[in-house]
Amino acid sequence: MHIGLIGGIGVAATIVYYQRLTAAVDRLGSKLDVTISHGDIQTLIRNNLADDRATQAELFARQIERLKAAGCDCVALTSLGAHFCVEEMNALSSLPVISGVAPLDGHFTAQGIRRVGLLGTRVVMRTRLYGQLQQTSAVALDAEIDLLGQAYQDMAVAGSCTAAQRDQMIDAGRRMVEDMGAEAIVLAGTDLNLAFDKQDPGYTVIDALDVHVSVLADLAAGRCSLDEVAMTK
Asked: Is the domain of 22 the same as that of 66?
C-alpha cells in the first residue's frame, strides 16, 4: 500500500517518522512505498492557537489531493498536534486518514496501563488527547500547560532540544508519575523524541509516534487492510 504523509509539521518529526517507518517495514520483510507532502509549521501553529480548524483542514485537504495524484492509498499526519482539525479534515479528505490518536487507547489497555501522563501541545494536554481516550484516564500538569506547550512548540520549530528543555520535559513527566499516579508518560507530541531519545528518565515512556508507525507499517506491508485500522473520527 502506498502511504502518504503530510510532513514538515515539524521537519524533525517528519524525519523521525520516515526513519522509523522505513525501519519497521524493513523488519516486516517488505518494501515501503511512501510520498511526503511538505506543510508549513508556522501556519499550523497560528491556526492551532487560534483554533481555526476550517482553514487548516482546507490546507491539509489540498495536500491530500496532491498525495492522491501521486498514487497514495491513504494519508497520515506526522504530528499529533495537527490532529486538532482532524474532524474537519476528514470531511474534506479524498483519501482515508489513518489516525495517530485512535490506536493509542487500545495500545495502553493492551499494556495494562490505566492512567497516563501527557506531554505535547497545549491543545493535546488540555483536551486530554482530544477526548478520544475511552478506556484510559489521562492527566496533565494543568497549571503548566502554557509553559510546557510553549517549550514544546519551540523545540518543534527549531528541530532541536536544549539541555534545559530536556530537563524541563523529563521533570514534568516525573512529577506526573510521582504526584498524579501516571503509570506511563505519553510523548503525545512527535518532536518530543528530541528530548527523550537515548534518555532513561526512570519511568515508563510511550512514544505515540511508534504506535502510529506500527499501524502504518502493517498497512504498507499488507499485513492489514484499511477496514481493520483505526481511522480518524
From this structure: yes
Spatial distance between the Cα atoms of 74 and 96, rounded to a whole number of angstroms: 5
* Stated pTM of the model: 0.91
User: Residues 59-97: pLDDT tens digits?
Assistant: 999 999 999 999 999 999 999 999 999 999 999 999 999
In this structure, is the dihedral angle defined by the CA atoms of residues 73, 224, 33 and 158, taken in order, positive or negative?
Answer: positive
Amino acid making up residue 104: L
How many domains is the chain built from? 2
Alpha carbons 32 and 42: distance in angstroms, whole number: 29
Strands (DSSP E) contained in 47-153 are 74-77, 115-120, 137-139
- Is residue 233 included in any domain, yes or no? no
Q: Kindly state whether residues 157 and 224 are assigned to the same domain.
A: no
Name the burial class of residue 222, with classes exposed (0-12), middle (13-18) and buried (19+) by CB atoms within 10 angstroms of its CB.
exposed
Dihedrals φ, ψ of 34, to 5°? -140, 145
Report if residue 31 sits inside a domain. Answer: yes
- Please tell me the distance from the alpha carbon of residue 49 to that of residue 166, in angstroms, as a whole number: 23
CATH number of the domain at 41, please.
3.40.50.1860
Q: To which H or E segment does residue 165 belong?
A: helix 163-180
Residue that is written with C-alpha cell 484516564 in the block: 137
Domain that holds residue 146: 102-208
pLDDT of 233: 41
Provide the pLDDT confidence category of residue 228 given band limits of 50, 70 and 90: confident
Tell me: do 77 and 95 sit in the same domain: yes
